[in-house]
Design a protein that fits this description.
The structure holds two protein chains of two kinds.
Chain A (H helix, E strand, L loop, with lengths): L24 H29 L17 H13 L16 H33 L1 H16 L6 H7 L5 E4 L2 E4 L1 H24 L3 H9 L4 H39 L7 H10 L3 H29 L1 H7 L1
Antiparallel strand pairs in A: 1-2
Helix pairs in contact in A: 2-3, 2-10, 3-4, 3-6, 3-8, 3-9, 6-8, 7-8, 8-9, 8-10, 9-10
Chain B lengths: L4 H9 L11 E14 L4 E14 L3 E5 L6 H9 L6 E6 L2 E2 L7 E4 L11 H5 L1 H5 L6 H14 L15 H13 L5 E5 L7 H18 L2 E6 L2 H7 L2 E5 L6 E6 L16 H23 L3
Parallel strand pairs in B: 3-8, 3-9, 6-7, 7-8
Antiparallel strand pairs in B: 1-2, 1-4, 4-5, 9-10
Helix pairs in contact in B: 5-6
Classes of the chains: A mainly alpha, B alpha/beta.
Chain lengths: ~325, ~290
């Protein structure tokens, strides 16, 4: 083979074509304006909240302070709930204590992270198995599809009958309190992982498979070098979905059984709202929102890192 | 066509580069009938009927025909991806059973792995088959082919950063890196714009003339067939049969110097080929999808 003569797509050795862009104020504004807008937007939102709660905006309905606390009081509660150091004398509520949100959040995090690890750790292999083997697919798919379409909370009574509320479960030298909570989270979170992984395997580009075969791939290589990398971004999407499903699951689990032993953020929200402790409800909810936001944005960044070629096709 | 056959063998014995009718038959199919299963409709579709074709060592064989006539099925059989239903397909005297390092393929949709760099894509055949090539040598050979197809400087780029023409260069480099005995090309330039296609055609011709590469090339462009082929097998539609095998008795290089279309034989060949596919092409259009 000789060297092909022309190179139409190769970049010209032309220094003038690519130059550093300078940071002018106009450019800075163009790049940063959305961040600025977001900050102003949030400031306006919280200001309206504060004014509204103090009944200073005449055309908005007056909501009782028992159900609609001010922003400042919520933030104060948030601070005490997370970092302690509160002077609780001025507060007319008995539930608020130093670190109350942090403590409950820790309980939530334990149940959530363990259940998510189980969901992902089991969901991926099950999805791969179903995608790769027609037998496994035929045997497992009725259960997987039924359970994934069923509103998962409908099987809660069965779980209560079988597992019961409270109790504990020992494994690997660790004790898991109130195992029904783990079951609820796993059952809400595992199916997006299974189904997305399965879909990734099933939709692997036939021409990529043919190419790998032509160049000599055996079955094992076909999976390792083509099917798995192709499936990876699907798995990430599945994990993303299942992280937010799992969050629903864990809050739900705490609504139902949190009072028994563990508490948790979900329980704190539920309990404080029942006690008309509005600042604590709002502060707990805010904590949960921040956690969910960080989680989802984090996995989105992970997705962009793992499969840059998909970002381009999406754009 | 037949009366010119004498001319051709004269030319080839004189050491010219036109056809290679006298060299060894490398790929032989006899009475080959093949098709594939339409899984959703649960029907077996016969794509090719009774194909007897011989491709010689060093020959550039072009298959031309309307879309859906089974050209790809033929190339898939030669590649070892499909088994013929009836008849035989042999490579170097042995029946084709599965894929082999001696046959490489270039795909219409490139089929390069998006998560691998250009260099990793080109080196893939060495990873998949044990060809007694050390890691270092594989890398070296990949780099050389990448240079040969004009992609030097893009070794570490990912496919999504490349244009269509560059992606197909990766596809060609990957097919050539193991120095296969046959290069199978399934409409490799079909998805490219006209200018890029012309550049790549010229480069392919140079490549093939230098290395005496055996090629089976699928296209539905008559011009491309005449520009590149030593022989052109015209395939008819539904099911695919060989209508005629046409010798392209024109000297090489055809594309590198001057305008091939001004050659007097070009017009005659083009007209003849168009006559052969015209009814098919026009008929195929009126058929329901």
């Amino acid at each position: 083979m000789t060297k092909m003569d022309t190179q139409p797509e190769a970049p010209a050795a032309d220094q003038e074509r690519i130059r550093e862009a300078r940071w002018t104020p106009a450019r800075l504004w163009r790049k940063g304006r959305y961040a600025v807008i977001t900050i102003i937007n949030l400031m306006v939102f919280f200001t309206i909240w504060e004014l509204w709660a103090r009944d200073l905006i005449p055309f908005l309905p007056d909501l009782h302070v028992l159900v609609f606390p001010t922003f400042s009081e919520t933030m104060e509660t948030f601070k005490i709930g997370w970092f302690g150091g509160g002077n609780l004398e001025g507060f007319n509520n008995k539930m608020l204590a130093d670190f109350v949100i942090a403590r409950n959040f820790w309980e939530t995090l334990k149940v959530y992270s363990v259940s998510m690890l189980v969901s992902i750790g089991l969901g991926i292999p099950i999805g791969l198995l179903m995608g790769g083997s027609k037998w496994a697919d035929a045997i497992l798919s009725p259960y997987v599809w039924t359970l994934s379409s069923l509103p998962r909370i409908a099987i809660y009574p069965i779980l209560v009958m079988i597992i019961g509320i409270g109790g504990s479960f020992k494994m690997l030298g660790l004790t898991f309190e109130d195992p029904i909570q783990y079951w609820i989270v796993i059952l809400t979170a595992i199916f997006p992982v299974i189904i997305n992984t399965w879909a990734g395997v099933k939709t692997t580009d036939q021409s990529l498979i043919n190419a790998a075969k032509v160049f000599g791939a055996n079955r094992k290589q076909l999976y390792r070098k083509v099917v798995l990398p192709f499936t990876l971004p699907f798995v990430v999407t599945g994990v993303q979905l299942s992280l937010s499903r799992g969050l629903i699951g864990v809050v739900l689990a705490e609504f139902l059984t949190g009072a028994v032993k563990l508490g948790g953020v979900g329980w704190l929200i539920f309990r404080s709202a029942n006690a008309f402790n509005a600042p604590l409800t709002y502060a707990s909810l805010m904590s949960l929102a921040i956690f969910a936001l960080v989680l989802v944005q984090g996995t989105r960044a992970m997705e962009a890192k793992i499969a840059p070629w998909r970002q381009v096709t999406k754009a | 066509m037949v009366e010119r056959a004498g001319n051709i063998s004269e030319q080839s014995t004189a050491g010219k580069n036109v056809t290679t009718q006298n060299s060894n038959p490398l790929i032989v199919t006899e009475g080959m009938t093949c098709g594939y299963e339409l899984e959703r409709e649960r029907k077996l579709l016969t794509a090719l009927v009774d194909i007897s074709l011989t491709v010689h060592e060093g020959e550039f064989m072009v298959l031309v025909g309307p879309s859906g006539c089974g050209k790809t099925t033929f190339i898939n059989v030669i590649a070892g991806l499909l088994k013929p239903w009836k008849g035989t397909a042999t490579f170097d005297g042995k029946p084709i059973e599965g894929t082999g390092a001696d046959r490489s393929m270039v795909f219409q949709d490139y089929a390069i792995l998006p998560w691998r760099t250009v260099e990793q894509n080109v080196a893939l055949p060495f990873e998949l088959r044990d060809l007694n090539v050390s890691k270092e040598e594989a890398r070296q050979r990949a780099r050389t082919v990448i240079q040969n197809v004009g992609l030097d400087g893009f070794e570490q780029s990912f496919p999504h950063e490349l244009s269509g023409g560059m992606k197909q260069r990766v596809g060609i480099a990957r097919a050539m890196v193991t120095q296969p005995r046959v290069l199978l090309a399934d409409e490799p330039f079909g998805a490219l714009d006209a200018m890029t296609r012309e550049v790549l055609q010229r480069q392919l011709e140079t490549l093939v003339m230098d290395s005496k590469q055996t090629v089976i090339f699928i296209t539905h462009s008559i011009d491309e067939a005449i520009s590149l082929g030593d022989r052109i097998a015209v395939i008819s539609h539904l099911p695919g049969r060989i209508r005629e095998i046409v010798d392209v008795d024109m000297p090489r290089p055809r594309l590198a110097e001057g305008e091939i279309t001004s050659h007097p034989r070009y017009g005659e060949l083009r007209e003849h080929l168009w006559d052969l596919v015209k009814d098919e092409a026009l008929g195929a259009r009126s058929e329901p999808e």
